[in-house]
Queue: 2 jobs
Job 1
Amino acid sequence: MDEKQMAKADFITSVVMIAAGLIVLGVTLYFPRFPEWGGIYSNPGFTPFLMVLALVGMYLYLLVRSLKRGGNQIRVTGEMVRKFFQSMVAKRYFICLGLFVLYYILLGRIPFILDTSLYLFLSILIFGGGRWLKALVISVGTSFAIYLIFLRIFLVPLP
Amino acid sequence: MGPLILLQEIFKLLNPSTLFEVFWATLLGITVGMMPGLTATMGIALLTGLTFQWATGDAILILICMYVGAIYGGSRSAILINVPGTPAAAATVFDGYPLARSGRAGEAIGLATTASFLGSMIGLFFLSFFTPWLGSIALEFRSFEFFWLSLFGVIICGNLTAPKDPLKGWISGALGLFLAMVGMDVIQAFPRYTGGSIELSGGLSLIPALVGLYGIPEVLNGLAEIQIQEKAMQIKRVIPRLKDLWENRKNIVRSGVIGVIIGAIPGVGENIASYVAYDFAQRGSKHPEKFGKGAEEGLIAAETANNACVGGAIIPVLALAVPGSPPAAVLMAAMWLHGMRPGPLLMVETPNYVYEVSAMFFIATFAMLVLGLSMVRTMVKVLNVRNSILMPIVFILCAIGSFAIAGRTYDILIMLIFGVIGYGIRKMDYADAPFILGLILGDMLDENLRRSLMLTSGAVIPLFTRPICIILIALIVLTIVARNARFKGMMSETRETVTKTLGFGRKKQP
């Protein structure tokens, strides 16, 4: 990211985090008090309150700094959004995340070896250039190897 | 007495089954370290989950081997393909790769291996004999001091690991501290920010969070961002010449000491150590112009410092329960998981544990030297594995490592969430080390702040007037103020005035 982009990103992050921080501060104020343990300092919300207050303060500083650098000059057009989603990196990033989520959702619903093989096969196929036979051999072989190594050597319970 | 106990502990480890474990774990560490994208922190976090069912001694030994091996392993890819395998090897690239390009790849690997070994030995010396001393001082620490210590750790870590923008380093640390407070609080067991979730009431699972923070961004980077993978170079002679090492004796000692000192600073880590040592080596060199063009001195300085830093980073783990680097933070979390209680009381409850850890560190270092000098050509082949195959496998290992500790798929979700957070943190120039340190130290900060105020019935004066507190507060103020441009200008003016008045100064480099 160049300085201009960073200023814009800082602006958005600061606004979101300040808003989130204020909500958390509100939630913290409703934490129960334990007068038998002492004053306000003994409450479970005491340290988190101070911490969030410090965070909000730092994000306010970041917000002011990003404003000085023109971080609020954000223009989002349909063309920009289309370009972003059409870029190779964004596509690969979302596919990657999608595969993670798919693996997580299927975990425990189908056998571990099948889920792992499927994830590896799709990942190697998509990111490795499309040789399906090679992807299949590597994914099935690796899944079995992982299953045996972790169950036998590491004695790790698998999902 | 200390050296004798250390020797006894080393002899205890000299049996075939332990040595077998040491060698495979160090080999795995070197492999993890040399693969660009796989870091020591991630390797340790992964193995923590995978060795959770093992006996405590064996598990900690494996993790130390992984730590030592991975920090050293980063030099391989730095030298051979111009990509540091771990951040710790970033300064190794400057001279390691030019040396390799001039046809001296084997020599560069040999020098890096020997320098790493010597650096580790310097680290070992301080770890064995300095920790008990620091531990005895730490016994004076009460809740007041621990509060300031945890705050100091996060602030200095944010300061040094985000040099471009320390504010983001501090934000990162504060976020970590806050997230550590999710779950039941340590004094009244009140569930904070759990939203009624039973899984969250125990707090955010530390190891899955760390695996996510370090592993998932690497997988995302490796798969989503198209990178051209360089082929590793051919290797000839590996064993270094004694003459080269002897000529660098001052450089080695200086870099080793720098590594240890930086290692002992909370959360700062091996990458900073190697940069600082490299800078000092260049300033102290008779041929500073050769740096960056294949200077052996530069390579030796970077590699000595990053491995010395490992020993340095374990010192505060054992003496103060404050990790010196991100991998040491995971090591500390692993010790907690196995029921160990690092910190001042360790010296009282199990005084020999420091020597036990030092012995493990020694054996791991020795294995690193043997493996580093003997299996060069075979191991270099690993560098040719493509990211499209390696990274999905790394993801599976991350998932298994996260699941293994509590047997909950929920922890895999935590890993994924923290993975996305970690990716965002890196993309936006927030350092990840303070975030991790915050996650580790959050409970300590919360508990000690509230406990100290409860002890004084809310009076804040003792928090600011106890001698160690005053030192820590002064360090915190100095750390924050030192980044101020006006303060920097004032300091440089003072330096110039002193130099002129006293009539000395650094010699100008040609």
Job 2
Amino acid sequence: MSAVIEVSVAHRLGAFSLDAEFASDGRLTALFGRSGSGKTSLVNVISGLIRPQAGRVVIDGRVMVDSAAGVFVPKHKRRIGYVFQEARLFPHLSVRQNLLYGRWFAPQAEDGGSTLDDVLDLLGIGHLLQRQPGALSGGEKQRVAIGRALLAKPRLLLMDEPLASLDEERKAEILPYIERLRDGFGIPIVYVSHSIAEVARLATHLVILGQGKVSMSGPTAELMSRPDVPILSTSAEAGAILEARVLRHEPEHGLTILGTAAGPLQIARRNLPEGTALRVRILASDVMLSLKPLDGISALNVLPGQVSAIGARHGDGGALEVQLDCNGVGLLARLTVKSAEQLRLAPGSPVYAVIKSVSIDMP
Amino acid sequence: MSDWLSPEEWTAVRLSLIVAATAMLASLPLGLAIAWLLARGRFWGKSLLDAIIHLPLILPPVVTGYLLLIGFGRRGPIGQFLHDWFGIVLSFRWTGAALACAVMGFPLMVRAMRLSIEAIDRKLEDAAGTLGAGPFWVFLTVTLPLALPGILAGMILCFAKAMGEFGATITFVSNIPGETQTLPSAIYTFTQVPNGDAGAMRLTLISIAISVAALFASELLARLVGRRIAVE
């Protein structure tokens, strides 16, 4: 299968130059980078809000921009949904009219796409229909904006930091909706973010941008467990993502046992049926390394593996990241430079990863 | 009412309302187009166009009226063309009075509309574009409704200006009772004849009443529209 999204762009905006290229067939492609790295410019090129000086944009086999061939499809003919950082609801229309706005322009003959009921159900906004946008909370506005984009029957959904202007509570309120959207609607999503936690939870494919260039692009789990991606690995939130499944529960200990390719993990009891697929995240700072199997340690989760790569020291700080290969699964551990020297770690060294905590991202 | 006002006075009031309404409605499409052009357009000669539009505001009204007479009079280049091709005569007709009022009210109308169009968040128009709306539909469904308070204000200002316009009108179309004698011209005539004070006072009161009513109407409309567009 060829890539759903193919983008290559060269565009200068004053002193800033965007020179980015990536392809993805992921269900949710995250564009990740610091502010000013060109993420928003890149989605504006994809949506047609910016006409790039040179480049090519192909969505689902349809050429939207090809500067060499003189092709530029205007934004209203691309059918690319866009959820902006600020919801940008039309203040003179009710929530219902906002939601149905795109319906007027979407091709009627082409069936499929989601109905108003589906979208209301997915986003939990049925009770807001008669309200005016001015009377909604930030989280409600953003959900209506997502619904409005969906109902225009888009081929692709762009989300530009849709959670950035919300507080933690509102973020937690919306994240599950985005996950359901990713898994249930079959519309590919490009998601802009500068939050590792959001990317780790949502993204299937990760594109890392820095100063207008793509520095790395690949499956999220693979990039997240590498020690040589500074923007990820040196962050306090650096960590590996593992696909897991609920094996069984141990009610007498209040534990749930998860199975992963790297080995079993024991976590605090979760009320999930056996067999449930999960995504778990293990922060690099929560992993210790030992050369020998340990006795008499309180940590429950110890996985055997070997060192596959050692990252560079953080500037002149005392820490570095070590990537482990645990039965084909990448894990990331943050050590002091001194411990790495004392253990004489090198690629290939057999080690035991002692995991202090596992965080769960719901399916 | 007719006991209180003489037939001539009544005619002047009716004529004024017709002339002002015609001036307002006829200049609306052009005013909106030019306001949009000045708010959004980037083209050579934009400041020149802006200056020309504002000219009637700073020129003595008599000068504007005289220029209209030269241009749109029976012998004037535009007046002759209109007469030969369409049989339209403007000089010394009520339609000429409407033209004079429209020209005088135009800068006020364009200014109010332009400001309200400039105040619209263009990001909303971008959002409408990504939802599939082409430029025309974006204008009709987003720009126009959001600019509505300013558009209404511009219309009312133009109407009020037209109700009070005197200098350009009397210069261009004179002061013919029943044809071009609007309220201000009629008041002026009363002040020029002996014992005209009572008539002048009656028309003055009517003039004040109409102006105040227009002002209230614009406030009311602005509030209605404003409530609908709850500002975020």
